[in-house]
Every structure is written in C-alpha cells, then in structure tokens.
Amino acid sequence: MGRRYDISNFTQHLNKFSSADRGNVLEKSGKERRFRFRFSNPLLQPFVIMRGISDGMINEEMMALLKQRSLRRDSL
C-alpha cells in the first residue's frame, strides 16, 4: 500500500481471523486493547511467509526483519 500501518489498523481483520468465520487461523489472548495473536497451527506461519515471498509481497528487507525477530525470539 506504500505506507506504514499500525496494528490498530488491522484489528478488525485480526479479530475475523480468530473467529470461525475465517477458520480460527489465529488464537487471541490477553486483555482488551492488549490482545496478542498467534497462529493456531504452527505450520501456518512458514506457509504464510513462503506464500508472501512467492507472491512478491515480502521483499529482501522484510525477510531480514523476520530473521532478526526470529533470532531475538530464539535467544529468549
């Protein structure tokens, strides 16, 4: 879309993906205004990343960010 978006811009979509309407792809936990989302099936995350690369939605810069986040998470 050519500009940055905050998580709050995606709240409606995240809520739909955590409901039966969209197949409960995400699990929602936490308190109101502090919800956290994660994939209900761990295999969905790499699939979404591979699909994003294949469709040209994830570029090299984004891949570097994903790798950094993965390394930080693994070191915790």
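[next item in queue]
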Amino acid sequence: MSVRPLDRQDERIEFRSGLLGEAQSLWNRIRNGDIGSLPVIIGLILIAAVFQTLNPLFLSSINLVNLMLDSAAIGTIAVGVVLVLLLAQIDLSIGSVSGFAAAILAVTFVQMHVPLVSRF
C-alpha cells in the first residue's frame, strides 16, 4: 500500500506553521464559533485580576500554596465524580458520603479526643 503525500493545495485542509499560524487558526476557530476552553481561561484571568486588585497578596506564593492545599479534598472528590460520569454512571451519593465522613471525623476529634497525629 503506497502512501500519497499530503496535498497542501486542497482548500479543505488548513495548514499553517509557526506561532503566527497557530494564532490565525485559533482566530478562525473562534470566528466559526468553536471557542473551546477560552471562556474558562478568560474567567480565571479576570478573577485573578479582580482579587489581585482587592488584595495585593493574592497572587503571592504563600497564598497560592494555601489555595491548593485547601482545594485538595474538593478536587479529589471532583475527579472521582468526573470519572464516574465518564463511565456513564450516575452516582448522587458522593456528596452525602463525603459529608458523613467529615461528620464522623469531627465527632472523633472533638468528643473522643483522638489526636490529629498519633505517635506509634
């Protein structure tokens, strides 16, 4: 089986090389209505700009690390939900199970005086 070379003169094929070509392809996709993840990126930039103007320490390394640590539990649950939904299963018990686990953890720490870190 012989492989024919790509006919770059075909008007159905869009080929542009380099950074300028990528920018033109992106602009053509946006103009045709395929915006992809552009609203999410613009939203994140807008949120970061607003919070940075309200608090100059928002984009500091300490605050960004704290944001990542605080969102780790919710992010883990969100990844689990996405994987369940990608498998075409519907599981509505994720919120109740995570709330139940948090309640048991809180009761264990407060009423049973179990330390957060135990020594072996």
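[queue empty]
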